[in-house]
From TrEMBL:
Substrate binds at residues 147-151, 181, 194, 198, 299. Belongs to the KAE1 / TsaD family. This is tRNA N6-adenosine threonylcarbamoyltransferase. The lineage of its organism: Bacteria, Bacillati, Actinomycetota, Actinomycetes, Micrococcales. The keyword RNA-binding does not apply.
């Protein structure tokens, strides 16, 4: 039988994404973002994001079908992110998907955004060219995922991508990317903060400052020996505050702020704690393959450290291409195609957007 053609819609944060796949083959991945409109606020403003989705949705749908050379009549199913994410933003995508499903009579699948970040690894050629990656075939079982973005920070255990996914840990406060964005602001760097800090850190000393590794007991870099409670959870608000204190202290004494050193030390703290906890989760849960996802996967130090630690622990690392790590519609379509092929029943029209949808 022909591979199912699935159209995926993503609108959980500030990216309006439409992806179209034929089974595991990517036909198109159209993303438009309202990031620039949030820049002067230093973070995503939900109302602005919702309005931007409304404006972008129909043109994005048209562009995606056009690019893929696919007519709506050839599409076998529609998939949409129903959560977690920003309520108003999600509602735009869910409404568009339902309208499309009603108008065309195509089956509709509501998918979880976090699981879709993992599902993107099913696509052929999804792996980045970095060389430290493994193929999509390894995604079928015993998989862990470390998702780090501006909106979420989680460790997942994926026993079966079509229905058996467990949340092992998540952030209790800020997301990792959010911490990057807030620290960048404190350091006077541009938004989004991740790329700016990454660049600044290149010429800094990661050992210049020792910043806290949230929810760990280890006081030194490299190993989280006793995570105590919240074993696989994260906290970045203490780290953000620690950086702010250092900067305030220096400014109060009219001393220069060593931006590069602070950026490098902050980046080291984030990379250290997320990779340590990911290793802990993998080794304690029989996970032998780890997928890295989310916008913070672009971070150079994180990539380096996760790769080093995975090889030390004998864990295979899967890092999708960056365009597939950040929020996009292809991941939703890829997971949708998987659900179709697994014989999972469509969701119908009764589901709603759920900002805190569990995995
Ligand atoms: O996945 P994404 O595009 O959107 C969501 O937030 O869901 O992730 C964006 C986040 C932002 O917080 C941005 O600062 C961060 O990813 N980011 C980075 C880097 N590039 C983007 N963080 C660290 N280092 C980077 N190179
Ligand atoms: Zn995301």
């Amino acid at each position: 039988p022909r591979e199912p053609i699935v159209l995926g819609i993503e609108s959980s944060c500030d990216e309006t994404g439409i992806g179209i796949v034929a089974g595991r083959r990517l036909l198109t991945n159209t993303v438009s973002t309202s990031m620039d409109e949030h820049a002067r606020f230093g973070g995503v403003i939900p109302e602005i994001a919702s309005r931007a989705h409304l404006e972008a949705m129909i043109p994005a749908l048209d562009a995606a079908l056009d690019e893929a050379g696919v007519g709506m009549d050839e599409v076998d199913a529609i998939a949409v992110t129903s959560g977690p994410g920003l309520s108003g933003a999600l509602m735009v995508g869910v409404s568009a998907a339902k309208a499309l499903a009603v108008a065309t009579g195509k089956p509709l699948y509501a998918v979880n955004h976090l699981v879709a970040h993992v599902g993107v690894g099913l696509l052929e050629d999804s792996a980045s060219a970095a060389g430290d990656t493994e193929s999509e075939a390894s995604l079928l079982s015993g998989l862990g995922a470390l998702l780090v973005s501006g909106g979420h920070t989680e460790i997942l255990k994926v026993s079966d991508i079509s229905g058996d996914v467990t949340l092992l840990g998540s952030t209790l406060d800020d997301a990792a990317g959010e911490a990057y964005d807030k620290v960048a602001r404190v350091l006077g760097l541009s938004y989004p903060g991740g790329p700016a800090i990454d660049r600044a850190a290149a010429s800094g000393d990661p050992r210049a400052f020792t910043f806290p590794r949230g929810l760990t007991a280890a006081k030194y870099m490299g190993t989280v020996q006793d995570p105590g409670s919240h074993r696989y959870d994260f906290s970045f608000s203490g780290l953000k505050t620690a950086v702010a204190r250092v900067v305030e202290g220096l400014e109060a004494h009219d001393e220069p702020v060593p931006v590069a050193d602070i950026a490098a030390s902050f980046q080291e703290a984030v990379a250290d704690v997320v990779t340590s906890k990911a290793m802990l989760a993998c080794t304690e849960n029989g996970i032998d393959t780890l997928l890295l996802g989310g916008g913070v996967a672009a971070n150079s130090r994180l990539r380096q450290l996760v790769s080093k630690r995975c090889s030390e622990h004998g864990i295979r690392l899967v890092v999708p291409k960056l365009s597939l790590c950040t929020d996009n519609g292809a991941m939703v379509a890829a997971l949708g195609a998987r659900l179709v092929q697994s014989g999972v029943a469509p969701s119908g029209l009764d589901f709603t957007a759920d900002p805190s949808l569990p995995v």
